[in-house]
Structures are given as structure tokens and as C-alpha cells.
Amino acid sequence: MKNTVRAKFIAVILTAVFLIPAVTSCENSKKKFNLPVADVVIQKADGSTLTVKAELAIKEEERNYGFMNRKEIPDGTGMLFIFENEEKRNFWMKNTPHPLSIAYIDAGGVIADILDMKPYSLARVTSSRSVKYALEVPQGWFTKNGIREKDTVIIPEY
């Protein structure tokens, strides 16, 4: 009898040791980096504008982590990835459960591509040409708001 109680106690302790850190890491993933937030203005071809409240991923480790483990990304928000130079870019959705759309943006702020990305996919989503920025938003947000390739993004100071 004592062995059964002891075995159950050990099983509970082991479960707690392995399960609690996993749950905590998912809950704290949003707080992994204290990213600055800025209003990113997109000017459409007709002259109208829309604003996205975007977290700014400036450092390499911030860009590499991106939206990993985020289950919710509210409409009207996103993440702007800022690179040091222009080149063809590849993104993927490793450990990213929320479907996203990405706009690849050149150094002049012109949207080169708008592409959709599937949750958890390791498939590379590649820009068609050299770009300096990428803006990720909830999937379909660009389409819903009439934002297209060749529209202009006003890059905030960072």
C-alpha cells in the first residue's frame, strides 16, 4: 500500500516538474522580449491610410523568435521585422500556431509581396526580390483592408 501511494506521489511530482515549465513558457512567450511598439502607417494607392500597431523586431534574436507560441494576435496589430540591409528574405512558421500574412517591404517602403503563411509550417515563404522589412499580421488582414503590392509603408523611427 505504501509503495502505491509513494508511486502516485512521485508521478504527480514528475508531472508537475515537466508540465508546469511547458505551460509557463507558452504563457510567457509574449513577454520573452520587451519589444517596442509603434504605429506603422500603410498608404494605399488611392491615398488613404491604415495603421497597424506593430511590435518592432530589431535584434536578430527578436526577429528569429517573432510570433512563435502566440495563440492570439488581435486584428489591427502585427510585428515589423527590421533588417540591417536589403536582400531576399525567407520566413517560416515554426512553433507559430496563429495563421499570418506577411508583407515584404523594400528599403523605400514599397510592398514587394503579400503572402499567406500556414501555422506550424516549415515551408519557406520567400520574397520575390530584395527587401529590408517584413510586416506580419493576422492572416487575411491585408486583403480585408484592400492593401496590395506596391502600396507604401511608412517605417517608424526605431
Automatic annotation (TrEMBL):
InterPro entries: DUF192, Saro_0823-like_sf. Residues 1-25 form the signal peptide. Keywords: Signal. Transmembrane segments: none annotated. It holds the Pfam family DUF192. This is DUF192 domain-containing protein. It comes from Treponema rectale.
